[in-house]
Here is the input.
Amino acid sequence: MLKDSATDSLDGVPTGFQHGAFVYTSDEEFVRLATPYVRDGLATGEAIVAALPPARIARLREALGPEGEQVGFIVMTVAGRNPARLIPLWRDAL
Here is the structure.
């Protein structure tokens, strides 16, 4: 499921960003679903930021191989401790 946060268009180009979400039941399923999604974004030149717990960061990095160097990773167990810091964190990431 994708949610486009864009509210206005600039010369036909959407503004804002997209937030991808999917449901998974295991770490293996997470990696199976996330890896192609991230690779597709990288292939089109998108900036990719993944906010995940450390174990999932490690699994996704391993699955992506060298492409993982192009992904911004945020340790969500640290960043999410204070929800008031999340919006500034995303603003900085973007």
The longest strand covers residues 48-52. Strands lie at 2-4, 9-10, 13-14, 18-20, 48-52, 71-75. The helical segments are 27-43, 54-64, 76-79, 86-93.
